[in-house]
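Thread: "does anyone have the structure for this chain?"

Original post by V.I.:
We have the sequence but no experimental structure in hand. Need at least a predicted one for the grant figures.
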Amino acid sequence: MSVSSAAFSAMPPQTSEAGMALAVEGVDLRFGGIHALRSVSFAAAPGEITAIIGPNGAGKTSVFNTISGFYPPSAGRIRLGDKDITQVPVHARAALGLARTFQNIALFRGLTVLENIKLGGHHMMNAGIFSALTYGCAAREEEMVLREEVERKVIDFLEIDHIRHLPVDVLAYGLQKRVELARALAMRPRVLMLDEPVAGMNREETEDMARFILDVQEEWGVTVLLVEHDMGMVMDISSHVVVLNFGQVIASGTPAQVREHPQVIEAYLGVESGTAA
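Reply from O.Q.:
Generated one for you, tokens below.
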């Protein structure tokens, strides 16, 4: 279901061409004697929403951390578009268009909503270190352009204009998750990775977040890869679902195909609840 001046000239264009394909190919991950991932392979199609599901301890976060560059794989490779990024540093992956949110909110306490969101776009600024340290003309101009773009295209898009000058500490949990999404969008991603974007949210907050994720995919054409335990949301908004269990892919397909897969029903959804997920 398909539910910038110099440094920051524009947000992603409103076309599916904005999204890039992401491929995980035969990835193994070991921590000493623990084999966290075993020959994991799947692809996220450009401009579509792909979900990774599985029981606790199945390896979902390990996959995310490997794609992000936090964990180097023991074997296999990660491809972003036509580029092998397996050995590319974390910050360089961001420059290539990979952005993510975290399961535990990772905002900067004490900063405002606007300040947190602007941090997402700073990796694209071109001002030299001297200009940045002295807040010279080049740095000041880029900062103004960044702020204008963030306010016009991210804050308005996520309907958080009314809180942009508030410190993130005072916000309700659901709004903090939305601010973290906004910071990731300020990076101008072509692949957006969302780690449990609705965890801990009530039903209304979950529905709002699902709507925003669909809007990012449909209006901006961004490729979305998400890890989530809310099966209702996963089945409603995803085009493709990958199921992990004990570090291995046990099923992959459309939500309807995965919902009926015997191994998925047995390992994750439960025999009785499988057809009603």
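V.I.: this helps a lot. Strands lie at 22-31, 34-44, 49-53, 75-80, 83-84, 98-100, 191-195, 223-227, 240-245, 248-253.
O.Q.: and The domain at 16-111+190-276 is CATH 3.40.50.300 (Rossmann fold).
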